[in-house]
Structure formats: structure tokens, C-alpha cells
């Protein structure tokens, strides 16, 4: 696929890094030469310096034969205008734009062909906020993602010493949980996937990746790890867009929320935007005396959500030392995230990974409706809808054991109308089934997508 990426900042770099490994033909356009040079040195792609809102720049970048435009510059207006030009002058088939301003999502009429010609909006702030909220709802979980309109969940949990699954082989899951529709799809030990087979014995401290009927998710999680006290008191360091969104959502759900923000004018803005029951504190999350005065030891969850990785790491380590029960930190740099994950920081959240999960479902071909990257990038979980019949589909009417999946890939679950199925080799895929596939490497994604493409004949 020929992909044109506008913007070489954090989001654009993450998009390029993720998609270039899948043998796409990628061109990146940005006005800043330094970041373009960095991308060209690291990856097999083409770069062009220039303003993407200029027709000549888009033309030189190859817009005329581009399959997909991803506009993720820092400016909403640049992204919107670029999509408009790409559609009207170059007839680019698909156009995705990163839009920060939340009001655009409320006016879809601005996005269509009569407006800015945007097929899909990507909001990193919205993606991260949604993900953080799921972690607060499931305090025992390390990751929670949903499929099939929330009917199915994939949850990662660190196994506790008192869990009934500790020291138990994977194939005995149904004996331990006879009334829970769930399957263990992988086990991580010391940060590395075991690619667990049925005989793998789960040990305390292992991270278990579980596919589960969402109605059973809370029960399953609490049997893998001792039930934690529900979250009520939340303290947030950083009152940027993510902090603001999350605080507003939590306040509406009757959580007790405090925000620490170092910029005085931003504090005034937050106080005007948020309900009166949200306490705004002017200061730094790394100020030990401030945290002690605000009784950090009574906080159920601490979230470090500034734009500075070092600040987030230091404030999270401090909050944990002072007694915060659970600490969650935004960390942009991949190396920092790997270093801090599972140490004194309970969960390190990568904004780029959360954004990529939203973006990838618009990039994938076939009837792919959702894609989520699992913790530490060990695999991608993909939801695809099976369409057609045995004559036009590679999956419909076929036994799971007969489907030619790439090496290491596996079908973890099916959603058939309102029924959750955990398939075995003899389960037959039906049209309109939602199929959850776990794929170990990005390079294999195209093969899985192709399985779900309907054609007059696939031979």
C-alpha cells in the first residue's frame, strides 16, 4: 500500500515506524528537516520537506497515486486542509486526520465530502483517556481492551500468590473456572512471552493475557489476582488535554479527583472548565511537601499525565514511595517505558501505542473492525468480520483447524450474535461471525487481513 504521512512529530513517527515494517511504500512530509532526517536514517521510507497544504508539495510527494493519507501534523487546520486538497485535487481514496479539538467530533457534517473530506478522525487524547479510564475501572488489570462492541474483552493481569490459577497448568482453566467463558492466550514471564501451550504452568508474578466474555471479566480478573479495593480517590499530575478529559469523566462518575498543575493560568482554566468538586492544586507533582499535605498515602490511584517523561517518572516514583496504592504514568519514549514497566510504576502507558490501536483499524484491509496492540507489543489482537460463503471466503464454512493462519497466529474467540464462543479445531466459522485473531508479528498482519477479504473466487 502506498501511504502518505503528513507530520513527523511523535504521532507521525510512531505511525511510520509501525507501518514501514509491513512492507508499505511510505512517504513522510514535514516542514522540519531534523525529524525527517532522523526518520530517513532509521527506516526504509521517503521524506519530503515542505508545507503539505501547498498543492505542489503534495504533488511532489506522490499524492496522485497514494492509497492512504494520514494527516497527523500538530495543527488541526493543517490536517483538515491537507485532507481536503488530497481528495479534491488528487482523489486519494482514504484520508485519516489527527484532530485535537473535541468539538469536531460533534459535527460529522464537517468531515464528509461536503466538508473537509476526512474519512476518519484520530484523537490521541481521546484514545489515551479511554484507555486510562478502563484501567481505573479494573484496578487489578494491567491492560483492558474491548472487541465486538464491548461483548468481549482481552485483559492482562499479573497473577497473585493467592490466585487459584497459581501453579496451575493452562489446560486446567475450565476446571478452576467452570462458569467463566475465558481462555488464556499467552503468558508473559519476566517481560517475555512464553507462547504458552496447554501444559504451561502459571507462576505467581506471570502476566496472563486472557480473552473473556466481558460479563465475566471482573470475576476472572479477581480470581487471577486478589481483589483490590475499588478506586474512589484519584490524583492527577498534569492538567493538559488528557488530564482535563479524564478528570471531567471521573468527576461525572462521582470519583474524588484532584489535579496538580504547575501553570497558574492553566489552573484557572481548569477551575472554570471542571465541576466544583474537582480540586485544582497549583504546584508540581514532584513536590514532596505538596503530596504529603494532600495526603497522597490515601490516594487509590496516582496518574502522571504531563508531557514530560522525566517528570512523569519522578513524580510517580515519589507518589509510590509516599504511599499511593497504584501509580500510572504516561511515558512517550519506548526505552523508558520498558525500563519502568512493572518496577515501582505499576503501569506505564504509551500514548503512541494507544493512538496506533485506534489508527490501525482504519488502515487494515478486509473486514477488520478493530485492532489492539497488546502490552509490550507482544502481539496484535485483531477483530475481523467473516463475510461471504465457502465459495467466496477463505474462512466461512471452514473448520478453524483448516484455516491457513500465519505461524504463531491463533483464533482466540468468536462472537456470534450475542454468543461468545471459544473455538477448537472443529469449530466452523459462519458468515457474520466476529473473529478475534492474535497475531505475533506486524509482518503477518497482511496475510490475516487477506483471509477476510471476500472475492468472486479466491483461487
UniProtKB/TrEMBL annotation:
PROSITE patterns: RCK_C, RCK_N
InterPro entries: K_uptake_TrkA, NAD(P)-bd_dom_sf, RCK_C, RCK_C_sf, RCK_N, Trk_Ktr_HKT_K-transport
Key words, A-Z: Ion transport, NAD, Potassium, Potassium transport, Transport
Highest taxon listed in the record's lineage: Bacteria
Keyword Cell cycle among UniProt keywords: no
GO molecular function: potassium ion transmembrane transporter activity
GO CC annotations on file: plasma membrane
Any coiled-coil regions, as ranges: none
SUPFAM superfamilies recorded: NAD(P)-binding Rossmann-fold domains, TrkA C-terminal domain-like
All residue ranges annotated as the RCK C-terminal domain in the record: 142-227, 369-454
Record Gene3D superfamilies: NAD(P)-binding Rossmann-like Domain, Regulator of K+ conductance, C-terminal domain
Domain RCK N-terminal residue range list: 1-122, 231-349
Protein name: Trk system potassium uptake protein TrkA
Organism (species): Bordetella hinzii
Amino acid at each position: 500500500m502506498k501511504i502518505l504521512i503528513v507530520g513527523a512529530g511523535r504521532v507521525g513517527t510512531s505511525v511510520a515506524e509501525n507501518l514501514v515494517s509491513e512492507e508499505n511504500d511510505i512517504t513522510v512530509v514535514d516542514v522540519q528537516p531534523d525529524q525527517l532526517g532522523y526518520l530517513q536514517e532509521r527506516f526504509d521510507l521517503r521524506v519530503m520537506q515542505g508545507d503539505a497544504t501547498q498543492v505542489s508539495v503534495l504533488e511532489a510527494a506522490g499524492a496522485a497515486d497514494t492509497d492512504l493519507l494520514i494527516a497527523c501534523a500538530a495543527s488541526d487546520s493543517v490536517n483538515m486542509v491537507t485532507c481536503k486538497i488530497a481528495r479534491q485535487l488528487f482523489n486519494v481514496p482514504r484520508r485519516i486526520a489527527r484532530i485535537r479539538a473535541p468539538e469536531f467530533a460533534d459535527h460529522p457534517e464537517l468531515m464528509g465530502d461536503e466538508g473537509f473530506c476526512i474519512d476518519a478522525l484520530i484523537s490521541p487524547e481521546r484514545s489515551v483517556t479511554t484507555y486510562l479510564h478502563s484501567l481505573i475501572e479494573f484496578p487489578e488489570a494491567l491492560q483492558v481492551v474491548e472487541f465486538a462492541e464491548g461483548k468481549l474483552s482481552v485483559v492482562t493481569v499479573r497473577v497473585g500468590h493467592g490466585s487459584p490459577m497459581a501453579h496451575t497448568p493452562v489446560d486446567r482453566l475450565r476446571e478452576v473456572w467452570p462458569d467463566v467463558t475465558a481462555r488464556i492466550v499467552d503468558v508473559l514471564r519476566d517481560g517475555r512471552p512464553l507462547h504458552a501451550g496447554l501444559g504451561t504452568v502459571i507462576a505467581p508474578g506471570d502476566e496472563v493475557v486472557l480473552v473473556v466474555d466481558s460479563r465475566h471479566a471482573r470475576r476472572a480478573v479477581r480470581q487471577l489476582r486478589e481483589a483490590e479495593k475499588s478506586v474512589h480517590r484519584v490524583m492527577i499530575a498534569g492538567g493538559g488535554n488528557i488530564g482535563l478529559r479524564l478528570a471531567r469523566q471521573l468527576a461525572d462518575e462521582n470519583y474524588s479527583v484532584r489535579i496538580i498543575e504547575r501553570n497558574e493560568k492553566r489552573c484557572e482554566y481548569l477551575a472554570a472548565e471542571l465541576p466544583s468538586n474537582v480540586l485544582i492544586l497549583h504546584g508540581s507533582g514532584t513536590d514532596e511537601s505538596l503530596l504529603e499535605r494532600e495526603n497522597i498515602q490515601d490516594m487509590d490511584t496516582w496518574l502522571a499525565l504531563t508531557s514530560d517523561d522525566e517528570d512523569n517518572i519522578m513524580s510517580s516514583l515519589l507518589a509510590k514511595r509516599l504511599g499511593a496504592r497504584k501509580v500510572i504514568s504516561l511515558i512517550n519514549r519506548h526505552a523508558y517505558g520498558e525500563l519502568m514497566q512493572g518496577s515501582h510504576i505499576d503501569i506505564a502507558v504509551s500514548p503512541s501505542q494507544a493512538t496506533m490501536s485506534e489508527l490501525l483499524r482504519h488502515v487494515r484491509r478486509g473486514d477488520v473492525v478493530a485492532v489492539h496492540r497488546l502490552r509490550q507489543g507482544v502481539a496484535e489482537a485483531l477483530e475481523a468480520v467473516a463475510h461471504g460463503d465457502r465459495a467466496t471466503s477463505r474462512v466461512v464454512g471452514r473448520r478453524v483447524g483448516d484455516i491457513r493462519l500465519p505461524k504463531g497466529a491463533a483464533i482466540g474467540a468468536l462472537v456470534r450474535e450475542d454468543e461468545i464462543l471459544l473455538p477448537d479445531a472443529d469449530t466452523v466459522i459462519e458468515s457474520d461471525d466476529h473473529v478475534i485473531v492474535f497475531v505475533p508479528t506486524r509482518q503477518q498482519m497482511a496475510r490475516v487481513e487477506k483471509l477476510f477479504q471476500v472475492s468472486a473466487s479466491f483461487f
